[in-house]
Amino acid sequence: MFIDSLSELWVWQLMGRLHPIIVHFPIGVLVVAFFLELFTLGNKRSELRAGIRWLVYIGAGTSLVAVLFGLMLAYGSNYSESTLNLHRWTGIATAVAALSAAGLLYRADLSRRKKDLNIYRSILGLTVLLLTFAGHFGASLTHGEGFISDVLPWNHEVVSEGEFTELLTEVKEHSEMGSVAPQHLNELNVGVRRIFANSCYRCHASDEMEGGLALDSEAAVMAGGDGGPIITPGEPESSELMKRLLLPAGHDDVMPQKGRALFPDEIELIQTWIELGAHWSDEEVLTFREAEMALSKPELPHSGNEFENPVDRFVDIYFKEQGISWQEPVNDTLFVRRVYLDVIGLLPEPGELKEFLSDTSANKRDQLIESLLNREHDYAQHSLSFWNDLLRNAYTGTGFITGGRKQITEWLYDALENNKPYNQMVSELLSPGEKSEGFIRGIQWRGDVNASQTTEMQAAQNLSQSLMGVNLKCASCHNSFVSNWTLKDAYSLAAVFSDTSLAIERCEEPTGDFAEPGFLYSELGEVDKNLPTDDRLEQLADIVTQEENGRLYRTITNRHWQRLMGKGLVEPVDEMDTKPWNQELLDWLAADFIDHNYNQKYLLSLILRSRTYQLPTVGLSAEEARAPSDEYVFKGPLRKRLTAEQFADALTRLAVPVYSSVAYDPFDTRIAEASWIWFDARENGRPAFAPPGQYYLRHTFDLSNDKIINEARLLISADERFELIINGESTVGGHDWREVQNVDVTDYLTTGKNLLAVKAEKRGATAEPAGVLLNMEITYSDGTKSEVRSNTDWKINNQDPDPDWALSDFDDSDWYSVRSFGSSLDNKYWGRLLDFSHESTEDRLQFVRASLVENDDFQKALGRPPREIVITKRDSEPTLLQALELTNGEMVNDVLSRGADRWIREYGEDPEELIRQIYLRALSRPPTGQEARIIGKLLGQKPNNEAVQDLLWAVTMKPEFQMIY
């Protein structure tokens, strides 16, 4: 009986081990069938149908066989249970989908109906998708979960070959002399624990105990696994752990089975540790590097008279150590373009560039930097992109529909515009008022969420990542494999934000423990668990923002360095425990930042004024760009691509507004209450859109004889052309509803009766929405104000009127009442009219910065994130989607087409000047002689829209336009 059972098990295991051979057959067959099916779309290549039919039938059958053999292999296996379950069920789902696809194909062949064929195709596509996931989980089982990602250069293991050689040499020398110091025993223990963390935790940690073995605590290591103890202190040759480590590669029992094999010095370190008694330190031993909390200001290096800027003094020492020679700073033209884009996010105007180039002052660069930092609105609007990414602040998207998310835009804009001290900003984020509470409030996701995505845990993750440069996402689910942070640490910080007791869950399984509120770094202060939540948050804010928290101020200093230089002093910027490429420079800048009252503009100015910032830019390979800071050699600022927002604003300056002021009000505080008004057309007694044509609008109003008019300004837009007449005098016209005209009309008004008249035209061939939007604000000498708006009090006519129709005493009693299409706040066709209270200059009313508008497909394609997670560094690698958007995107084509019309209106009679002005505005330089000749031939003497649009597109596609050099 025993022999029969053994024989049956042997056959079962043998059949199971055929699974890896069999499973590749349906994979290949079904994938080929799917791609052949794509070739038949649109009733093409019907000759492929017979072959596809057999491929699908064979693939479905063999997928079922592969599943059966896979279940045999899984029986009694020692695979990771979680990954095995994922592979098992995705494999079964694949077989079910494949059999369904085969059945649907058979039905489609019988019915000859296109609907049945399309259903079959959809299921076949689903089959291939499931097949992909099943294959991925299968590879994770056989090769380890990091089989693909481990080879990527940015995922190299923390431990490197030969790292422990020096320690082993010292230990051996002391051992030969008769004793090993406690310090060396501790260092051995730390090294072994680092090896366990990097190579073993994925299978042998408290939440993934394959074989019943965990290696993340002293008790677990000494207890061993299901097979008994793995360590015999003092006897490495008898220790099961060493036997497993020394087995040849490919052996069934060799360890580790997943990931890379241990380096020789790692194996020797573990052997030495066991030989010396497997000491486990009672002290808190950090498995991974942690940066010092304390922040002291290093002494400035001496450099004679060569360098005045502190940044340059530290970099000079670094360059000498690295054998790098200083290069000459970039020329004035490159500098102007670089600093404009870095500080305010806009291209310099040709006049601004000319003024700077003609300036002979020795300190003109410093003066320009300060003048740009003092452009509060431009600085704030550009900086919003960085801070919105960092603080996860969006204007729309996940959570807003359900009310489970809140903006902090108004608070943030005010903080940036007024250069609020950084410690105050952080304090108001952590102990918030109504306007800043969205940061810790996070996103209340719909339905049930896992424990690591509760609002309290989001607050902990957001605080730690964005403000402290610590990533708690792994520790929110289990003890981290890549840092010293534990599940308890993450839950303690989350508990600070919780109104109720917070139960600790490990990988969605309750542990039975509850978290005590506390900050990550207890040496900075304790959080009183007995305080109400609001008081705890106030206490947390005081702890985090104190000067002793060097972590906070190093992190923001590093982020600003990365913004300007392209790569941080510490990289990745969210892993501040990584060794900086220049520790003294980072510490000095952070300490100096504190000394200057946490003034971010001061910090930016200091870096911008350095010769280091003004060096020629450097291009790095993808591997070099991702290298951590301790492996990176700084040679100068990195060449950067324009962000989505910078590119959109650059297009606006070059062509026409990408986002017009009439379409968006960035402040959302006091919206002008004017309405879009137009002819009240009717069809069968019901409202309809008026046909194209010319329309005439009038509105009379009285101004008091007792008040003196100090100033009157008027905003007007019309879809799509208009002429404004005030008291019989023509004032301003427009031809694009997106361009709001801002006009000083003080001299056109009089006391008593006044008339606003608009001659408007809607072009096209069909009836569609049209309208006029007007808002006039009158300021009197006594400081009082009044407004005149477009509303239902206006009159309109669709017939050619009397020549005197634009005079105030004209009788319009037989004219029609206008129809309102909604105010500038709530209409669905055009958007909002900007309010007077925030903008005064005409230029600022012409367009809205891209950082202020809701995310759209254009900006998404260019890399603007949805901000559902903290984003601290955008991907700068170009993508196919970006290429398609810039080549054929509707928005780009529309902007360039309208821009071409604008350039033709301004310079159509002088093609040479047109070319020169486009180059100056786009590239901050005139065209070369060769460029001017080639483009001149293409444009001819009478440039048309298509030719100018091609020129604008060609210029915007140049790296010189899209990059910051």
Automatic annotation (TrEMBL):
It comes from the Bacteria. The chain crosses the membrane at residues 20-42, 54-74, 86-106, 118-139. InterPro entries: Cyt_c-like_dom, Cyt_c_Planctomycete-type, DUF1549, DUF1553, DUF2231_TM, Galactose-bd-like_sf. Keywords: Heme, Iron, Membrane, Metal-binding, Transmembrane, Transmembrane helix. Residues 187-278 form the Cytochrome c domain. Coiled coil: none annotated. The keyword Cytoplasm does not apply. It holds the Pfam family DUF2231. This is DUF1549 domain-containing protein. It comes from Rhodohalobacter sulfatireducens.
